[in-house]
Design a protein that fits this description.
- This protein is mainly α.
- It folds into 3 domains: 72 residues, no CATH class; 93 residues; 81 residues, Leucine-rich Repeat Variant (Alpha Horseshoe), CATH 1.25.10.
- Helices cover 73% and strands 0% of the residues.
- The chain has 19 helices and no strands.
- Helix 15 packs parallel to helix 17.
- The longest helix has 52 residues.
- The chain is elongated and about 85 Å long.
């Protein structure tokens, strides 16, 4: 027993010494790296500034070491955030010429997830056409955050040939990463609006269709009125609500009857009725006055508020309905009507 305790004590002491040594060595290396950065950074910043300011710049001359190039990349990425146009293009060209873009792209093949994530984000910031092939391969990365960053980078590069692969990835990631997928769809919608129509297709996942409907409305993509009308007849309340908002933002007068039905559909969720009410106000069709006036006198506080707001957007007839509501026996109806008329 005594011998066993002795061996345990030796093992614990050895582990403790190893841990202390690891901490000391780690701190030493970190301090050394920090000192090297403090020494090199001013030189690199000055070299980049001189390169960008010169009419016919000479290539930046720095020690050809990995540490120097890593720091150059870091400083360049920081600088890029403040640049645009010709100066930014020149800085990207410099990184390409020095092989830094290619070296960063090679990081997508690393076994370490952290390295791949950094490489994807750095390539997204650089936004170089040279990286399209590497980013396309990165779409298949087993780490979802890395693959989505590659997709965002490709969307921002406006490479239409990559759109099907980006949408396929977005379709599979829409449930786990809805925010990232929505951002990608917005980027695609601005550069290649047709891709939003593909995302709204019935064979896509429900979550992707919901996001695409919201993006189509946000960007007012009138060319996708057809798929939005189809979505408006879906059995999924969330998709219907987003399609209604989209059609309202676009101003689709041909769907007023359908929206009127949804605004008064008691078998639908409250947010569907509110979305339809908002859409009717945005479209501004006078046929909506009567049903909206009925909604104003409904029991739901939020629905009353939305109906009052929508009536205010319907011109003289809507204003007349609001003035009639001022005599309602229900205090909240009076309040909503008063607020709407004061806007």
């Amino acid at each position: 027993m005594t011998q066993l305790l002795a061996w345990v004590a030796i093992a614990m002491t050895t582990a403790f010494v190893a841990l202390v040594a690891w901490i000391v060595i780690g701190r030493f290396l970190a301090d050394r790296m920090r000192k090297r950065e403090l020494f090199l950074r001013p030189t690199i910043e000055a070299a980049i500034a001189e390169y960008l300011a010169a009419e016919d710049p000479e290539p930046v001359r720095l020690p050809a070491t990995k540490a120097t190039y890593d720091l150059l990349r870091m400083v360049a990425l920081e600088t890029m955030a403040e640049l645009s146009g010709r100066e930014r293009d020149r800085l990207v060209a410099l990184l390409e010429r020095l092989g830094i873009v290619a070296a960063t792209a090679a990081g997508l093949g690393s076994r370490r997830r952290r390295v791949r994530r950094f490489a994807a984000e750095a390539l997204r910031q650089i936004a170089s056409e040279e990286t399209v092939r590497s980013l396309t391969v990165g779409l298949g990365d087993r780490d979802l955050d890395t693959s989505l960053t590659c997709a965002a980078a490709l969307a921002e590069l406006s490479d239409e040939t990559c759109a099907p692969a980006i949408l396929a990835l977005a379709d599979g990631a829409a449930v786990d990463r809805p925010g990232a997928v929505a951002a990608i769809l917005i980027t695609l919608g601005r550069s290649h609006p047709a891709t939003i129509g593909a995302a709204l297709a019935p064979d896509r996942s429900l979550e992707l269709r919901r996001l695409a409907a919201a993006v189509a409305g946000e960007l007012r993509l009138a060319e996708h009125v057809g798929p939005l009308r189809e979505a408006l007849r879906s059995g999924d309340d969330e998709l219907v609500a987003r399609a209604a908002r989209g059609l309202g933002a676009i101003g689709d007068v041909e769907e007023v009857e359908q929206l009127l039905g949804l605004a008064e559909a008691e078998n639908r969720s409250w947010f569907v009725r509110i979305a339809a009410t908002d859409a009717l106000g945005a479209i501004g069709d006078p046929r909506a006055v009567e049903p909206l006036e009925r909604e104003l006198h409904s029991e739901g506080w939020l629905l009353q508020a939305k109906a009052a707001k929508a009536l205010r957007m319907l011109g003289a007839k809507g204003e007349q309905a609001l003035r009639r509501a001022l005599t309602s026996p229900t205090t909240t109806v009076q309040d909503h009507a008063r607020v709407a008329l004061e806007r």
